[in-house]
Automatic annotation (TrEMBL):
NCBIfam families membership: 2A0604s01, secD
GO BP: any one term: protein targeting
Transmembrane segments: 9-27, 381-400, 407-427, 433-452, 473-498, 504-528
Name of the protein: Protein translocase subunit SecD
Ranges where the Protein export membrane protein SecD/SecF C-terminal domain occurs: 360-528
Single GO molecular function: protein-transporting ATPase activity
Amino acid sequence: MKKNLKQKIVIIIGVLVVFLYGAFFGFDAPRLGGGQPLLNQLTQHIHLGLDLQGGVHLILQVQVKEAVSTETDNTVARIEQDLKTAKLTFSQVTKPDATNHPETMHIEGINPTQSNAVRSLIDGKYSNEYDISGGGGDNSLTVTMKPNIEKALDDKTVQNTIEVIRDRVDSLGVSEPIIQQYGLGDNQILVELPGISDLDRVKNIISTTARLSIHAVVGGPYPDEQAALSSVGGNLPSDQELVHGSGSMATGSDVDSVYVLQRIAIVAGTDFRSADPGTDSNTGQRTVHFTLTNEAGDKFYEYTSANVGHSMAVVLGGRVKEVANIESAIRDSGEIRGSFSTDEVAILSKMLRTGALPASLNYLEDRTVGASLGADSIKQGVTAAIVGVLLVMIFMLVYYKGSGINADLALFLNLVILLGFMGFSGATLTLPGIAGVILTIGMGVDSNVLIFERIREEMRAGKAPSAAVDQGFAHAWTTILDTHVTTIVSAAILFLFGSGPVKGFAVTLTFGLAANLFTAVYVSRVIFDTHVNNLKTGEAVSI
């Protein structure tokens, strides 16, 4: 019996040491001599949530129709190429309402004698992803993206956007950011960055599309769009587009100009492998040096080899940034030059490295939580927790006398285990998380009260101290287990379907209750058994 008790005491001390280490050091090795005070160590390894230390809160909506439009733009180009390769006659492939219905395309001007051949070709190559209708007397076909394909593309766009935002936020060095889908099917994203106060900088880094692409130049610069349209006979071909230049870098002056470009890019955002800021040694201009992927490099080399002497335009964010003549074949690297500031060139490089957003973003909600509000929350929450714990400990000592010490030790160990878990896991402590700690304390005390009252009943029935303790724990165990398991299941559901602070509450409550089962039953029983073993004959348990 005594040997078993010693083993159990060793286990309890071991658990206490492990979780004390976790609370102060986490998984870091402690630095001896000249180290930080223990209180600082504790605050460094317990991550505070947005509501406790302040930060940035954003709700974004992804414009998924842009991704659909980009996909159908590529499909338009593929259909045109397929029809030309098959030597089938048509006038043009258009998107009649590109703004509201980018998923719909028309193949117009089909030769009536070739309508069956066109329909057969489109059915064979595109019917898995698109619904195809028409082919009647108007000599046209309508090609519409299937709803399930569009839905899958929307979901993929949102997930890709989350990944791009996560990569960009990592560069801010934010600990425990929350970046996740938000809302029910509205293509919304929740972003919470604890400890960050510069809202404008965050918005600039997150929402910069950095949609860089390189296009063949058909004509320009022209002073306005009318002049640009006149250069192509008044009707812009479907495979070309008008793009404005952004000042001196494109035109040599600050006057806005218009270019006619091939709509399909030679290389685009996903083709970039790396990008680094630099400075042109001759002009002193800040530059971004980029490298393409191998596949894109081969494509770029093939194009530039065949078009030496022609112009190509670097388009960034929908505007021409630079126009260059192709003097020789280029394989996989180049530079973007411009009158960038130091911050601009650094941000542009970062955007290109992390990849362009697949679609632009709308800000539905943006606000900062002040640090002072967070400090007040911490102070009030910690004060409430300390006062609550002290009052409960005093009550247990007064009402249950010597056994109250048993309950207080179990309560203290429960808090140590909970803090150690937070330190090891890196879980974020939120204001609702503090509420979870207080609720855990309440349930821990409730478990002790349940056990103590059962022991009192057994003692009033005339049982010896050891038998009373045995029966007290045996009768209370089932009830304690039931209440803890049902509450843990509820907390697990909150964790799965909640977000932010709600998850913080679920985390502290779940692990706090698990710790309760260990301290209120196992630790408390060991203390009782040790006390009973040391009682003199005829002496009663102090309870």
